[in-house]
Specification:
Blueprint (H helix, E strand, L loop, with lengths): L1 H13 L3 E3 L5 E2 L5 E2 L1 E3 L8 H18 L5 E5 L3 H12 L2 E5 L12 E2 L7 E9 L3 H12 L3 E10 L3 H9 L4 E6 H11 L4 H12 L9
Helix pairs in contact: 1-2, 1-6, 2-3, 6-7
Amino acid sequence: MQDTARLVANCLLSTGAVFLRPDDPFTWASGIKSPIYCDNRLILSVPEARAEIERCLASLVREKYPAAEVLMGTSTAGIPHAAIAAHMIGLKMGYVRPAAKDHGRANRIEGRLGQNEKAVVVEDLISTAGSAVDTALALREAGADVLGLAAIFSYGMRRAVDKLSDNGLVCHSLCTLDTLVEVAAELGAIAPNDRARILCFRDNPDDPAWRA
């Protein structure tokens, strides 16, 4: 898995899907100030990187969730990755909306999902894990047997780890922040001392000390 993590890290960095700005932090939707921003939608525009990452994602699902019957993408960023990986493996695919539609059949879950069907949630990025857990709970409520989550990248933040654990969920990610900053430092994308600062953010994002 370490070789896979480094391969994915290189793909994320080479496609510009990861932005590293420890001296000019981003503001996430949650309000968290962060030295890193990840936009895995950009992977879709680079065929070579996309092929590598989807191959790795499909292999991850086969290895960690061999009983999976359907891949369910989070809306919206997880949808294309779930679709491509499911096609490669030969599995059913669907996705979960943040809320039910207010017209038509008022669906929240799109795609056919049978009772007790073994589902894996596909997410492009795990930060605080809010959307991923919400998706998994919606699937459980609909009667699915949620085996766990598969993600392209995870920050490994404590609040996400706790949220997943509190809801009885396991998540396997192709790449984590530790590997990403290691590769970024090797490539000269960040200064050597920035690696420690970014990991300090990961461990305690509310502590302003990492911005010093």
